[in-house]
Amino acid sequence: MARVLMSESAPIQPDDVRIIRALQIAPRASFAAIAAALGLTEGAVNRRYRRLRADGVIRVAGVVNPGALGQSRWLVRLRCRPGSGPAIADALARRADVNWVSLGAAGSEVTCATQSRTREQREDLLGQRLPRTAAVLDINAAAMLRQFLGGRGHYWSALQGTLSPQEEAALGSGGPPFTESPVVAREPLRLTAEDEKLFDALAVDGRAGLVDLAAAAGLTPGRVSRRLDALLRHRVLHIDVEIAAAALGYHARAHLLLRVHPSEVKNAGRALAREPGIAFAAAVSGPWNIHAVAHCRDLDELFEFTSERIGPLAGLQSMEVSPVLRQVKQAGTRLVDDRLVDDRLLVPSGARARC
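The structure assignment produced for this chain is given below.
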């Protein structure tokens, strides 16, 4: 387990939600541009953003897409010995190649997503470390075959309608629109040493300025600007706006495992992507051929959502709803008490499992 001292968070105000939505649309837009679009002052946007970030409500970070580099992505479910799940989840969350981790089933089930940068890294985790972990009773690993929702350009849409169409149009776009495409690129891009340094800087702060990025990568601001545009355009990188959903009143998160007739998988995945309650949806290998993540305000809303919105999907044969007991990590960012935290603030507390 881990602990961190956090200041008491201030209540979320309507303008805070508007700023979060603006960042979803254009995560690297200047405070001046956001202020102009929303009718606020630049100083107010600056202050509210910094408070939201300090309170762990949002975090803007650059996220690398391993598929663009030729590497597959996997969704993994672990059944663990009673009492061992939290330590295993924490150990997985500390790995750079595991970008989200959740704990469920009264703490005895861990679900995570891996995005290994090399084949050796993936095989070390899935083929060696996890099978040899004594507290892991069962492993179910599914390859992601097609992503319908999740990541920059097609974000969690529960905040749609927060801004007017005119306000959204004034913000422009923070990257190319999401288009359905193979998870693994057939012609992967080769990275340079400067790219890796750029990724490291953006992982810390996705809104870092060109001068700071240039200093980190050892390039000129002009070259950094051109390279960043190219990496975003080729979907090697996206600027992700992570949101602590509980801070906005969404306290019930669940994994939805769907078995859909093969002829309807595409249609079902695209339908899920249009649902505001869905934050992630992908076609996967294995007996459950669609994996989705739902955010609802409470368990009653989750019941209504799954029965009324998901249940009628054409081709749906069966569904498992697995509520999340605790979200440990999402899109590379750790969570403590439902707030996003910097790993550097985490303090070890007791022995941890090794993965």
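Interim note for the steering committee: The first strand starts at residue 2 and ends at 3. Residues 1-7, 347-352 have pLDDT under 50 and may be disordered.
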